[in-house]
Request: fold
Amino acid sequence: MTGRTPASSFTRRTFLSAIAAAISTRAAVASQAPRVAVIDWALLETCLALGIVPLAASELVQYRKLVVEPEAPATVNDLGLRGTPNFEMLRLVKPDLILISQFYSYQRAQLERVAPVLDLPVHQAGTPPYALLESSTLKLGEALGHRTGAQAYVETTADALARARSSLASGRTRPVFVISLGDSRHFRAFGGDSMFGDVLAQLGLQNAWTDTTSYSAAAPVGIEALARAPEAGIVIVEPAPPETARTLPRNAVWNALPAVIENRVSTIAPVNHFGGLPSARRFARLLQTAVGNWPAA
Amino acid sequence: MSGRRIILPWVGLGILAAALFLFQVYIAWPNGRDPVSAHLQSVILEYAVLPRAAVAILAGAALGLAGLLLQRVLRNALAEPSTLGISAGAQLAMAVATLYAPMLMAWSVSLVAFAGGIAAVAIVLALTWRRGLEPVSVVLAGMMIALTANAASAALILANGDYLFSLFIWGGGSLVQQSWDPTIVIASRLAVGLAAALLLLRPLAILGLDDASARSLGVALHASRLAIVALAVWIATTVAAEVGVVGFVGLAAPALAALSGARTLGQRIVAAPLIGAILLWATDGLVQLTAGVSGERLPTGAATALLGGPLLLWILPRLRMMEWPMLARTIVVSHRAARPAVLLSLAVIGLVFALIAALLAGNGPDGWFLANGDLLADLAHWRLPRILVAAASGTMLAAAGVMIQRLTGNPLASPEILGVGAGSGAGLAVVLLVSASAGLAWQIGGAMAGALGALLIILTIAARGRFGPERLLLGGVATGAVASAIVTAVIAMGTSQSYVLLAWLTGSTSQADFGQAAIAFAFMAPLVGASLFFSRWLDILPLGTEAARSLGIPLAAARLSVIMTTALLTAIAALFVGPLSFIGLIAPHLARLLGLGRARHHLIGAMMIGATLMVVSDWLARMVAFPYQLPVGLTASMIGGPYLIYLLSKGVAARG
Reply:
């Protein structure tokens, strides 16, 4: 993060090692997994990918539909919505550490009454997030006594992206729009500062949306904006509103897009767009298949 | 037919809209070098730019017509899709269908929207049937239904964000087009509506008279009225389904038609759709003019709401609101208990029991349990502030409810309709718009400023009628509608602030801490004290103006003090539990049903009951979907809803 002074980074490091020490002692004594609760989904994914099964995590019902992998085992206690986690439930499961991202910093004081809180940044508007995700993964691994596992995961993820990059390079590279459909007439675009946009860059693909991302539901853009890059392909990330299946094929502007006429449109399963490295991998994999299906230029 | 017909400004506005349209055509004119982009540009001109203008014109006309029909048959100058809860009902239906019956949405969005809209109107009409669809009560009921539906939609959006992305866009009312389909659909509805309106010219004219005259002229009163309402809802929800919520055009167009000199119904049937078309077309032209690369900064529907709000406040004092015989004051004390002290003690015991139960009983990973010892000490840190905030808010809303019902003599009056709750939301929205990271102190400050601003507007409107009940209620409803429109517009911008506002709309106490509890009590104590101080006035005010004067009450001063106190109580409570709860509506009723007739007893009893209900609502909010938490505003509405239906079955008119 920008603006952090060396002094505070030192405190962060001492804090991390203190937690790691506390947890590993406990783990050594009880030979248990670290008792951790996770509020942010990107960190939840990362924990699960490192083989750490949290004691509790938030909004698992939606997680299983929208993030999908890595799978959250049934033993994880649900903490309710991310925006309003159930502090009582948290207190009852009594974790030793709570993981949040900067999106949930406002809950920190309440959460700290239960256990120490580790706040790992995952996304910042205007900055490509991949490097941030790598460093947060490493910090998470360090804090939970999985340093080598985290390092290995960062490396295998980078390898996976590099392999995807070289296999895509053998084909043609067109610019790609990554969008999610808002309704029959609007979409949400993912720019270079989004996880999708950054993975596109890692894969050597050009993002057809040159503006930054408007996060959450933001400033939906009319479909006609896709005509700005007629040569581009389009990747639609689910979920899509149910009515679009009927209305989009009747949309004259949509039907006139070269991408639609020339079959350069693919729909991929849901991916957490605020996700961590596991979601980045999932997106790269789905994207590779989707783009691979397009006819050669 | 007088010479006071004002046409020139409309011609001017129409020319402006046309100029803005031609500018868009000029920008979009195909100039691509290669055939691919030249073809795309011509498609965009033909299927995006042109139909957008057509939709703006047709949707504006359709909303103007729908508003005119509703206002005519309900004889209510404030009737329109948003004040009757039609838009909110349609939105809730669409949210529910998207989540639980996606097939329905895939099949026909219009039908889902119509079902929601007609259900909302049906409830509003059923609630006010026995009061003879008296305008003020219709609008009050519409407001309550709209607030409830909005809170429920907001809760669904919060719990299912990515699946309900479309509702953000829909709530903003974007006129972006990519085919002629919506134009054709809206045009066909408008044609049917206009044809029906012209065919029904005579019954419509008669329905504008009072019921007795209408009946003596041989009109099948209820059947024609309901048929026309259904037609208007059909037109309005079609527009809603095709382009989303477009606020205030339905309200403003008929009113402006009347103010521009359209006297007869026939003239208005022509003038209202025309004015609606010009208003929407011009607004949409301005919206397109300010659009950036990543889309429009403000969707058109939100823009009409923001522009229409001040317009509405300007129109309001100029309209003849009361084309309806006002019903006599209806507060009737059913019975008065012999020993109110015993009842009040029982109410206190009930509250204490609820407080203890809410503190101790809870759910967990291993099922239900009563907390004690260390666990209780830990849990109390979260439970107690919530319980205290809920109790204080319930108390304040109940006190506010007693005062407003006694002041207005309207048993459907509830603190929410003063508009100060919505006003505090608008203040919050503005603060969040200026700075996304505004802290709690700024948020509270903004909310207070918004509430005070709303209060000033209401008082200005009410002052013209010496703070009489009708002006007060209408001013409150109008201000509330404007403030809600501001909140909706900021939510429709879809930033992270939207979620803060959505959480506020649903009324969540989940982040309550002891600091908030202290603030709540610090405001509650003096305000509740003041309300008890007014109890003699509150005993006399419901007896009517004459009685109050003859008993030597300083009428304007008494009303003003009561309004101010009520507004402050409501604003503070709305800050903590959101704009809607029904507690301020039902606690005063329950206290009266118990036989607490004198104002002092009525106030204290209602406050105890209000606090108890709110504590129970908060407990339910924590427990019903454990570990997921529901917003307390929503659970309170779930308690209040059935009571409203009970009121309905007993007949509101007979009860106070």
Strands of chain A lie at 36-38, 56-57, 77-78, 97-100, 117-119, 176-181, 186-189, 221-222, 233-237, 265-268. Chain A is about 45% helix and 10% strand.
